[in-house]
UniProtKB/TrEMBL annotation:
Pfam families: Acetyltransf_3
PROSITE patterns reported in the protein's UniProt record: GNAT
Swiss-Prot/TrEMBL keywords: Acyltransferase, Transferase
Native source species: Nonomuraea indica
UniProt protein name: GNAT family N-acetyltransferase
Residue ranges annotated for the N-acetyltransferase domain, each copy included: 10-176
GO MF terms, alphabetically ordered: acyltransferase activity
SUPFAM superfamilies: Acyl-CoA N-acyltransferases (Nat)
Amino acid sequence: MTSPWEGERVRLRAAEPDDWAALHAFSQEADVVRAGESIHPPRSAERARQWAADLASRDADPDEPRLVVAARDDDAPLGMINAHRADRLNGTFSYGVSLGSRHHRQGYGGEAVVLLLRYMFAERRFQKAEAWVHASNAPSLALHRRLGFTEEGRRRRSHYSGGRWDDEVLFGMTVEEFAELHG
């Protein structure tokens, strides 16, 4: 039996202190950072080392894991995925995934999302996943539609970056929808 954290091309794993350089490099890619949030002031290499060491030294929160998306063949970091806003009462959670730009459009992100959702639905008993995607992030919009998420709403002009306002699109998927589409 294979690990529940492994797919065909990626595996989700805890951060290691040595991941700092790759993750720091991804944080310098403006298009990657803008797709998920906003541009922040530069972080020093030393601060990036400390951040990775701190992340590696913490036990993962089972309801809000923060994991490295790594290549299955060589364990190289491709990006990060996390669950957040876990609401045990209502059984919902949100998540985010971000990969370095050279790893885009190769199936890594979709595989990582399916692995995380399988864990959250089958092991943590959540009933619905949500993802907020910037309306200008066409690749992420396409990914969520391809994975079978339903577009549930839109917050207009709720994100500012790169000198312009952007809408956020809410996608959702229930545990039943996931089971039907992804087994």
